[in-house]
Amino acid sequence: MAKLARLTDLLADSTGCLRYRVEGGMGSCGRSLLVLQVDGVLSLCCQRCLEPLLYPLALRSLLEFVASDGDLSQEELEDDSRDFLPAEKELDVLALIEDEILLGLPSVPRHDDCVPPGGARELTKESPFSVLAGLKGRA
User: Do residues 85 and 68 make contact, with C-beta atoms less than 8 angstroms apart?
Assistant: First the structure.
Protein backbone atom coordinates (compact mmCIF):
# COMPACT_ATOMS: atom_id res chain seq x y z
CA MET A 1 0.00 0.00 0.00
CA ALA A 2 2.83 2.40 0.81
CA LYS A 3 4.00 2.27 -2.83
CA LEU A 4 0.62 3.49 -4.12
CA ALA A 5 0.99 7.19 -3.23
CA ARG A 6 -2.03 8.48 -5.17
CA LEU A 7 -4.24 5.85 -3.56
CA THR A 8 -2.99 6.37 0.00
CA ASP A 9 -3.90 10.06 -0.28
CA LEU A 10 -7.57 8.98 -0.51
CA LEU A 11 -7.50 6.49 2.37
CA ALA A 12 -8.52 7.04 5.99
CA ASP A 13 -5.95 4.40 7.00
CA SER A 14 -3.18 3.10 4.76
CA THR A 15 -2.50 -0.10 6.71
CA GLY A 16 -3.48 -3.40 5.20
CA CYS A 17 -2.60 -5.06 1.95
CA LEU A 18 -3.94 -5.77 -1.49
CA ARG A 19 -3.50 -8.98 -3.45
CA TYR A 20 -3.01 -8.68 -7.17
CA ARG A 21 -2.48 -10.97 -10.10
CA VAL A 22 -1.45 -10.02 -13.63
CA GLU A 23 -1.63 -12.55 -16.47
CA GLY A 24 -0.63 -12.00 -20.06
CA GLY A 25 -2.14 -13.55 -23.16
CA MET A 26 -3.35 -12.98 -26.68
CA GLY A 27 -6.66 -11.33 -27.48
CA SER A 28 -8.72 -10.71 -30.56
CA CYS A 29 -6.85 -9.86 -33.74
CA GLY A 30 -3.69 -11.34 -32.22
CA ARG A 31 -3.20 -8.43 -29.82
CA SER A 32 -1.41 -8.83 -26.50
CA LEU A 33 -3.59 -8.46 -23.43
CA LEU A 34 -3.40 -8.42 -19.66
CA VAL A 35 -5.91 -9.80 -17.18
CA LEU A 36 -5.63 -7.85 -13.93
CA GLN A 37 -7.17 -8.95 -10.63
CA VAL A 38 -6.93 -6.96 -7.39
CA ASP A 39 -8.54 -8.01 -4.11
CA GLY A 40 -8.49 -6.54 -0.62
CA VAL A 41 -10.20 -4.09 1.69
CA LEU A 42 -9.56 -0.34 1.63
CA SER A 43 -10.32 2.07 4.44
CA LEU A 44 -11.91 5.07 2.71
CA CYS A 45 -13.27 8.19 4.40
CA CYS A 46 -17.08 8.41 4.39
CA GLN A 47 -18.01 11.74 2.80
CA ARG A 48 -21.15 12.00 4.92
CA CYS A 49 -19.95 11.32 8.50
CA LEU A 50 -16.15 11.55 7.89
CA GLU A 51 -15.58 8.21 9.66
CA PRO A 52 -13.62 5.30 8.13
CA LEU A 53 -15.52 3.15 5.64
CA LEU A 54 -14.29 -0.36 4.88
CA TYR A 55 -14.61 -0.83 1.13
CA PRO A 56 -14.14 -4.37 -0.23
CA LEU A 57 -12.22 -4.31 -3.49
CA ALA A 58 -12.68 -7.10 -6.05
CA LEU A 59 -11.37 -5.65 -9.28
CA ARG A 60 -11.23 -7.57 -12.58
CA SER A 61 -9.92 -5.84 -15.70
CA LEU A 62 -9.20 -7.05 -19.21
CA LEU A 63 -6.68 -4.74 -20.88
CA GLU A 64 -5.81 -5.15 -24.56
CA PHE A 65 -2.81 -3.45 -26.17
CA VAL A 66 -3.21 -1.54 -29.45
CA ALA A 67 -0.71 0.32 -31.64
CA SER A 68 -2.96 3.41 -31.90
CA ASP A 69 -6.60 4.51 -31.53
CA GLY A 70 -6.98 4.23 -35.30
CA ASP A 71 -6.55 0.45 -35.02
CA LEU A 72 -9.88 0.07 -33.21
CA SER A 73 -13.20 -0.55 -34.90
CA GLN A 74 -16.37 1.19 -33.72
CA GLU A 75 -17.59 -2.12 -32.32
CA GLU A 76 -14.41 -2.50 -30.24
CA LEU A 77 -14.72 1.06 -28.92
CA GLU A 78 -18.27 0.34 -27.74
CA ASP A 79 -17.31 -2.95 -26.05
CA ASP A 80 -17.34 -2.39 -22.27
CA SER A 81 -15.92 -5.82 -21.44
CA ARG A 82 -12.34 -4.63 -22.00
CA ASP A 83 -10.21 -1.54 -22.09
CA PHE A 84 -7.44 -0.66 -24.49
CA LEU A 85 -3.91 0.53 -23.74
CA PRO A 86 -1.31 1.91 -26.12
CA ALA A 87 1.40 -0.67 -26.83
CA GLU A 88 4.72 0.53 -25.42
CA LYS A 89 8.13 -1.08 -24.91
CA GLU A 90 7.89 -0.77 -21.12
CA LEU A 91 4.93 -0.88 -18.78
CA ASP A 92 4.87 0.34 -15.19
CA VAL A 93 2.74 -2.43 -13.70
CA LEU A 94 2.45 -0.77 -10.29
CA ALA A 95 1.13 2.46 -11.87
CA LEU A 96 -1.30 0.41 -13.97
CA ILE A 97 -2.61 -1.38 -10.87
CA GLU A 98 -2.99 1.94 -9.05
CA ASP A 99 -4.82 3.48 -12.03
CA GLU A 100 -7.27 0.58 -12.18
CA ILE A 101 -7.93 0.78 -8.42
CA LEU A 102 -8.53 4.54 -8.59
CA LEU A 103 -10.95 4.08 -11.50
CA GLY A 104 -12.82 1.40 -9.53
CA LEU A 105 -13.39 3.48 -6.38
CA PRO A 106 -16.71 5.22 -5.73
CA SER A 107 -16.58 8.94 -6.48
CA VAL A 108 -18.32 9.75 -3.17
CA PRO A 109 -17.75 6.94 -0.66
CA ARG A 110 -20.31 6.84 2.15
CA HIS A 111 -21.99 4.49 4.58
CA ASP A 112 -25.53 3.40 3.78
CA ASP A 113 -26.84 4.42 7.20
CA CYS A 114 -24.81 7.20 8.78
CA VAL A 115 -25.66 10.69 9.98
CA PRO A 116 -23.66 13.77 8.93
CA PRO A 117 -21.66 15.51 11.66
CA GLY A 118 -24.11 17.56 13.75
CA GLY A 119 -27.09 15.76 12.19
CA ALA A 120 -28.15 13.97 15.38
CA ARG A 121 -27.93 17.17 17.42
CA GLU A 122 -30.09 19.07 14.96
CA LEU A 123 -32.83 16.45 15.20
CA THR A 124 -33.10 16.91 18.97
CA LYS A 125 -32.67 20.70 18.90
CA GLU A 126 -35.83 22.59 19.87
CA SER A 127 -37.38 24.69 17.14
CA PRO A 128 -37.55 28.46 17.86
CA PHE A 129 -41.17 28.38 16.66
CA SER A 130 -42.24 25.96 19.40
CA VAL A 131 -42.26 28.89 21.88
CA LEU A 132 -44.66 30.78 19.58
CA ALA A 133 -46.92 27.74 19.36
CA GLY A 134 -47.14 27.72 23.18
CA LEU A 135 -48.07 31.42 23.25
CA LYS A 136 -50.77 30.90 20.63
CA GLY A 137 -52.48 28.28 22.84
CA ARG A 138 -52.76 30.83 25.75
CA ALA A 139 -54.40 33.54 23.70
Answer: no
pTM: 0.71
pLDDT at residue 138, as a whole number: 64
> What integer pLDDT is reported at residue 125 of this predicted model?
62
Q: What is the pLDDT of residue 121?
A: 47
SS (H, E, C) the chain: CCCCHHHHCCEEECCCCEEEEEEEEECHHHCEEEEEEEEEEEEEECCCCCCEEEEEEEEEEEEEEECCHHHCCHHHHHCCCCEEEECCCCCCHHHHHHHHHHHHCCCCCCCCCCCCCCHHHHHHCCCCHHHHHHHHHHC
Residues with Cβ within 8 Å of residue 56, at least 6 apart in sequence:
40, 41
Q: Which residues, in sequence order, are bridge partners of residue 24?
A: 34
- Residues lower than pLDDT 50 in the chain: 121-122
